[in-house]
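quick one, 129 residues, struct below
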Amino acid sequence: MIILVPAEQRLSLEGRIRVFELVPDPVTGDERLHRHGYSYCLDLAGGILAEYEPDELDQVTNSIGEPYAVYVSCQSMDAARTFLRDVLPGVDGLVDTNHFEILPASRFLALMGRHPEWDWRRQPSTDLQ
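---
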């Protein structure tokens, strides 16, 4: 998943994540997080934006302006939900599920609250309405 915020909020989002005591991954250069029994690999450099299609990047830019992105990889949906519940409250940005949806963070959190077992890899948010 990818968390996107306006570029001017980069330090705020990074601060929320760095408080969890990340450690460098000597192999990938990314950062690792071990929290609540889960393991995460994070790319805080924002390079994931280079992988966006032009229309996707336009959608993000039209919504939040120039974006900053954090890529988060983890082992399970439970891990993903836990991370997002820890990080997203109060974030004014977007969540890219990496499964064809980019949703406002507040809406994403609301959907997770109403549908605690939601697996966005298999079920689009429009099926939850």
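The mean pLDDT is 93.
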